[in-house]
Amino acid sequence: MPLYTHVNSPSSVSCKSSQTPSAVVLIRPHHFIANPETAADNSFQTMISGQDVNDESIAFQEVSGVIDVLKSHGVDVHVFEDESHHRPDSVFPNNWFSTHAGGHVAIYPMTAVSRRQERRLDIIDMLKQVYRVQEVVDYSGQEQDGRYLEGTGAMVLDHVERVAYVCQSRRSDPVLLERFCSRFNYEPVIFDASDAKGNAVYHTNVLMCIASDLVLVGAKMIRDDSQRAELLTRLEATGRRLIKLSEKQISSFAGNMFEVQGDAGRLLLMSSAAYHSLTKEQIDLIQLSLPIVKVSIPTIEKAGGSIRCMLAGIHLSKRL
């Protein structure tokens, strides 16, 4: 099996919204396992020690199913195979790189030592060959100083309003966040969020999803009243439809959705677990803006992330 394949680009639809990528990078793991090193601060991770003997093949099939779903909707997918036994979280590439309009790419420092091997030059080379890349800003050297910023896991980016929403954790260093925002022209909005047991939310993208016309957020997990009110005011001011999620829905990855551009328009990707956690009213509100597309990834979700974590959006212009 080739290590890289480019799946489906029939019409090369341009991005209709600056918020929404029409192309993504996806990693298909051949030896999937949840990462024991990340379990300490990822309360969403349910598989910590040991795993079912079938998990590797099931995870491979789940990712293959996501590829098929994206292909059927005309989303441009760059698929990279991971045959390594030493990259347990490689299925979540959005943590180590992001792309930005104008030809900019960022590479990020990772908290877990085991995750630093996920950074792959072949992916960066593909971006340079297929898209117009003007600069690659590499922050990974900050790992030596104990500073970490795990990409669009740590940050939920509003590309329209140029805001980076970040819940504080050891995976989102405030100094490095300030450097990123200054370089890439975002305003940082920082807050604290935790579950009912007091555990800090490890990544912002499990708490909130920003799409072109709507935003979903687990607002009650922001325990400080003033921080919560400030965040909700900021989100409402964007003019997007605001949907508040419960903590139970957040634990089912309802905050970890992702809007992508297909050949027939924008669509909202979510896992089956996330979909089934929503109320009928919430589903109806989402569908006023765009269609929902469900994917079944229960084995991948054991590792503590869902569909948003699996997809690194490409906000770059293609070479002619």
Mean pLDDT: 93
State the low-pLDDT regions, or none: 11-15
Describe the sheet with the most strands.
Answer: 4 strands, mixed
Which class best fits the helix and strand makeup? Answer: alpha/beta
How would you describe what is shown here?
There is one protein chain. The protein has helices at residues 55-72, 121-130, 151-154, 174-184, 225-237, 247-251, 272-277, 280-289, 298-301, 307-310, and strands at 4-7, 23-29, 76-82, 97-100, 104-107, 135-138, 156-158, 163-167, 187-191, 208-210, 214-217, 241-244, 258-262, 265-271, 292-295, 312-314. A hairpin with a 3-residue loop joins strand 4 (97-100) and strand 5. Helices cover 27% and strands 23% of the residues. It has a four-stranded mixed β-sheet with strand order 1-3-2-16. It has a three-stranded mixed β-sheet with strand order 4-5-6, with no helix packed on it. It contains ten helices and 16 strands. The radius of gyration is 18 Å and the shape is globular. By secondary structure, the protein is an alpha/beta fold. Residues 11-15 have low confidence and may be disordered.
Topology:
Layout: E1 4-7, E2 23-29, H1 55-72, E3 76-82, E4 97-100, E5 104-107, H2 121-130, E6 135-138, H3 151-154, E7 156-158, E8 163-167, H4 174-184, E9 187-191, E10 208-210, E11 214-217, H5 225-237, E12 241-244, H6 247-251, E13 258-262, E14 265-271, H7 272-277, H8 280-289, E15 292-295, H9 298-301, H10 307-310, E16 312-314
